[in-house]
Design brief:
Alpha-Beta Plaits, siroheme decarboxylase, Arc Repressor Mutant, subunit A, EC 4.1.1.111, HTH-Siroheme_Decarb, alpha+beta, 11 strands, lyase, single chain, about 35% helix
Length: about 325
């Protein structure tokens, strides 16, 4: 499906700052000269056609719940079978084949560190392969949307993670919308009724999570490949610890870098500690961005690699509910 100009405009505008009001689609529609019901219809169609995966919260790692990035080195003749095992795990949110000896990469995100560890243990037991666990050390840039036109000259920055005091309602609310807001006239009321809370209570908690930097953006989560951005590059470097913050600051400012973060290296199997995500229409575009990063940060001679994704086996939002059945 080729997205219409209206769909592209709605996606581009509402990847962030989706209205936290009783009737958000009435406001959203005004930006495209649509009435409320027509707007809801467009969003339902975009979700059905996989242009967007959901409208909802993108949560800063390890604030509410826990998460990690992990990888496996899978013999090529076992890749489909092992990928199926990994994707069946309820807490696995993303599962990709990438071009590297470590060829299966997945994100595990759930309620707490114990649930993450249990997931890793099950995967190792079922596959007979050791999981390379790479938890977040430092997040330098968490993407606040994905421009469908030229990269924005001024990147949006989320609020720093502030003085957030966990509230038991927050995890329940995030669990209720982990697959996205209901695409109805009163979505927050639908969530509130499900949780036996008040609508204003749900909206107020989401506003607090956004203000505290726990939710880094609230809006459309796009399917990049469905919109023509098929060269998904995970660029990684081995950066000395004494300069990693300075290098990361340079990388994070680049308009084409959607994520930048530090993870631990693992001797013998994974020497890299700084990660950047670059989404491009073609490989040449991705390589051009990485070349520019190396020039800006003087990292061209440092050990590095680019892992392009080959296949997506699973992609969904973080899981905050407990005992969630696999989709």
């Amino acid at each position: 499906m080729t997205p219409s100009s209206v769909e592209l405009a709605l996606i581009d505008r509402w990847q962030h700052d989706f209205p936290l009001v009783a009737k958000p689609f009435a406001i959203v529609g005004r930006s495209a000269a649509l009435d409320e019901q027509a707007t809801i219809g467009v969003f339902r169609r975009m979700r059905a056609c996989d242009l967007i995966s959901r409208v909802g919260a993108v949560v800063r790692p390890n604030t509410v719940g826990a998460s990690t990035l992990a990888a496996l080195q899978v013999p090529p003749d076992r890749l489909d079978q092992v990928a199926e095992v990994v994707s069946r795990e309820p807490l696995v949110t993303h599962n990709y084949e990438r071009e590297h000896d470590l060829n299966l990469w997945f994100v595990i995100a759930g309620g707490d560190a114990g649930a993450i560890a249990e997931t890793i243990d099950r995967i190792e037991a079922q596959t007979g392969l050791p999981v390379v666990d790479l938890p977040m050390v430092q997040a330098y840039h968490l993407g606040l949307g994905f421009s469908l036109r030229e990269p924005r000259a001024q990147k949006r920055q989320p609020p720093a993670a502030g003085d957030y005091r966990p509230d038991p309602r927050d995890q329940r609310i995030l669990a209720a919308i982990e697959n996205g807001l209901p695409l109805v006239e009163h979505p927050y009321l639908a969530v509130a009724d499900q949780l036996a809370l008040g609508q204003e209570e749900v909206i107020a908690r989401l506003e607090h999570l956004v203000a505290a930097g726990v939710v880094t953006r609230f809006g459309c989560v796009v399917r990049h490949d469905k919109l023509g951005f098929r060269s998904n590059a995970m660029a990684v470097w081995n950066i000395p610890g004494e300069i990693i913050d300075d290098v990361a600051a340079i990388f994070a400012r680049h308009a084409s870098v959607t994520l930048c973060y530090q993870r631990p290296s693992r001797p013998l199997v994974w020497p890299y500690n700084l990660f950047c995500m670059v989404h491009a229409r073609f490989r040449e575009e991705a390589y051009a961005v990485i070349d520019e990063l190396n020039l800006l940060a003087d990292t061209g001679l440092m050990q590095q690699a680019v892992l392009f994704s080959k296949r997506c086996f699973k992609q969904r939002g973080a899981v905050f509910s407990r005992h969630k059945e696999t989709n």
